[in-house]
Specification:
- The structure is a single chain.
- The chain is of the alpha/beta class.
- The chain is built from three helices and five strands; from the N terminus they run αβαββαββ.
- The protein has helices spanning 14-62, 97-107, 135-145, and strands at 85-90, 111-117, 127-130, 149-152, 166-170.
- Strands 2-1-5-3-4 form a five-stranded mixed beta sheet, covered by helices on one side.
- The radius of gyration is 33 Å and the shape is rod-shaped.
Length: 172
């Protein structure tokens, strides 16, 4: 024989290589599943947080509350109806409802600043919100329109009113 036999420790054992390859593949698959699962979990949590925030905003707009700690005294309107500007928003989703409501508001003697759509279209009832310092005017507007829900601006900013004194959101 021309070539010597190899020592038993020097023999290449194919099962070791196969085990290493299979383990590496399993590790890569586990990492991929963790990344995909973590992304799906993060998306689910983000969706729930966004949904909760929208519900909170919807409830705060639909049910305005007086400021905490201050007893509410009856406010008296200081300005005549012709000096009060109103933003009319459609909160029920029916086409043309805001324009019809704006005509009614104008018929009561108020100025219309703008007509448009509310942030969502599932308001259960109509409501009037007023800017700080115009509580009397807001309550009078609500009384003139037969609206029972009245309160200070909630969920809207004064600058979004474009100079108007009150907001009338038409509900179902």
């Amino acid at each position: 024989m021309d070539h010597p036999l190899a020592a038993p420790d020097a023999i290449v054992r194919p099962w070791r290589i196969a085990a290493f390859v299979v383990g590496a593949i399993a590790l890569v698959e586990t990492l991929i599943l963790l990344v995909l699962g973590g992304g799906a979990l993060a998306e689910a949590v983000a969706t729930r947080v966004e949904h909760h925030a929208q519900e909170s905003a919807r409830e705060s707009i639909a049910k305005p509350r007086p400021a905490a700690g201050k007893p509410e005294k009856p406010a008296v309107a200081k300005l005549p109806r012709g000096k009060i500007a109103v933003v009319v928003l459609n909160g029920n989703g029916r086409t043309g409802a805001a324009a019809a409501a704006a005509s009614k508001v104008r018929g009561e003697g108020y100025k219309i600043r703008s007509v448009g759509n509310a942030p969502h279209t599932d308001f259960p009832a109509s409501l009037v919100m007023f800017r700080p310092g115009f509580a009397g005017e807001g309550r009078r507007l609500a009384r003139d329109l037969g609206v029972k829900q009245v309160g200070p601006l909630d969920g809207m900013r004064v600058r979004s009113l474009r100079g108007a004194h009150a907001v009338f959101i038409l509900g179902a």
